[in-house]
Structures are given as structure tokens and as C-alpha cells.
Amino acid sequence: MILQPVLHPILLALLCAVPAFFVVRALVRGPSRGLWALRLGMIVVVFVMLLRPGIPGGTSETLATDTDVVIVVDTTASIVAEDWAGDRPRIDGVRADVQAIVDEYPGARFALISFDAAAQLRLPLTTDATALISSLDVLRPEVTDQSRGSSIGIANRMLADTLAAAAEASPERGRMVFYLGDGEQTASSEPESFASSAKYVDGGAVLGYGTAEGGPMRKTTGQGSESGGYIEYQGQPARSVIDEDNLRRVSEQLGIEYRARAADAEIDLPEAPTSTTDYAASGEVGNVVELYWIGALALIAMLAVEVALATISVVRLRGLARPQPAPAPPMPARPAPTPPAPTPPKGGIG
Questions:
Q1: Per residue in 118-143, pLDDT tens?
Q2: Cα separation of 272 and 205, whole Å?
Q3: Residue 67 three-state SS
Q4: Mind telling me which InterPro entries this protein's record contains (predicted)?
């Protein structure tokens, strides 16, 4: 038998001692001792439940990926070009693939960097994968009216700084980078190089989105919704096309593979560094069979008895308080019937 109390046992004892004192006093001094004994039993059961008793079960191995995963996402206007799974925006594919990355590396720490006209650290390294997915859900491309062109390498310095800080804080952890974008360079300058980050990278991939035919892009306002219209160029809807040469160049700079993405193809993710995914290194976690539910059943039974007794008392009190009907007044005695007068004989006197 083992105990896993929700609070320190001394604190639990103090919390239960106050109601127990009043119940014991009523049990000793007052009537209805059976009812007060039942209430004392409830307090004891609650105290035992809060101690969370259990018995040791088996053991199970857990996998912990001691890896830092930095995700770099393109948030330029082209990320909502509608050529994913037919006419869906590319960012739908980005979100689905990030979820796959989270599922592939359980226990890893994740960071999120977005880039358009500038790079932004959306989420520092954290083991909270839910926060990463939430950040992706609210991620919106840059405002169309404020767009002045963007570079696919604008996030190079922020990525290098994030990786360098992670390597300094935890040199024993592996580091992976996933770059998700379409490779379209709209700035007039040459894209910056990611070569300074390569020495910190142990794995990852550059994932490309879009098609050679391209897709139209809806205007964005930055208010969390699309305006409904499309970006136009020379009177026609502008189309964004994937630039795989640029994406391959980024993958070469980072020392990782390039992989084109399509909605009808399963994502192929690389394995995490083997030194960070050893089951034996993760250890074993003992399972405990919880027994508090037994106390919960006993408490429910006691409460049922308490409710039943209270119901009986209420019904009895209502019966005593109900006014009794007044007795009917006695009926007045009827007068005795008067005897009829004698009938004279018929005929004359003889």
C-alpha cells in the first residue's frame, strides 16, 4: 500500500479535524447518535480519499526525446495561396505538418519562428506542445497593404541565436530545424544565408509548399479574417508559385534534406538523433492502481442513507404540523314522537 496525498498529511488532518470535533461533540452530548456516527464516518472516508491510497502495479517504459526542435514558418502573403489539396490555402498544410512533427518527437522542446518582412520569435523553447499548436492556429500572414516584399532568409539571425542559446544552455540535447515555406523571394536583394546555423543542427528538413501552376492569394487585413478579395497584378489575380531551387539552397545551407509537400502524400520525417531517444535513458515509471474509488463508493452510500433519513424526518414533521380536522358537533336529540289520539268508536251508544 502506498499513499499519494493531494496535500501534506498534516495539513489534511488539520482540515478534517475541525468538522470532526463538532461531530464528535454532538455524538457524545446529543441525541441521534447513529446519525452523528454516520457523519463522522463520512469525514474519515473523505480523509482517506484525500490520502489517495493505492497499490503498486506494473512498470512501463516511457520515451523522452531530449531534442530541441525549432520550427521556422513562412507567414508572407503567399502562405495562403490556394493550391493545397486543390483550392485550400497552403497554411492548412503547414498546420497539419507541424502537428505531425509534434507527434513524431514526444517529449521534445519546441520553438516557433515566423517570418515575412521581419522575423519574430513566436514561441521560445518549451515542452508545451499545446502552446505550439495554439500559436499556429492563430498565426496569420502579414497585412497585404503593408507588404513591401520579403526575403526567405530573413530569419537566419534569429534562428542562429535561438540554436546557439539552446546549445549553450543544454549542450547534451540534440537540435533539429524544420523550415516550412514556398521559397518565393519577393525582396529585391539576395536571400540571406542560413549557413551560420548549420553547426548547431543535428537534423530536420526543409518542407516546400505550393505548385508550379501556383494559386491565387486572398488579401489579409490583420484582423483575423480575410477580406474576400484576391491580390491582383496587372488587373488579374496574382498567383504564387513554389520556388524549389531556393528551398534546396536553404536545405544545403542548414545541412538538412529538402522535401516537397503535397496533401495526398504522407509526411516523411527524419528520425531524431539516436543519442536523445533511448528508452533505457528515459527510465521506467511505476504504475499505481488507485483505490480512492472504493472510498468514493462508501461515501455515496453514506450520503444516500443521510438523504433517506432526512427525507423521512421531513415527511414526519410535515405530518405533525398538519392541522387535525375538528370533531363534528353532536346532533340535537330528536323529540319523542307524540302518540296518536285514540279513535272514537263508530256508531251510537246502545
A1: 999 999 999 999 999 999 998 888 88
A2: 11
A3: strand
A4: VWF_A, vWFA_dom_sf
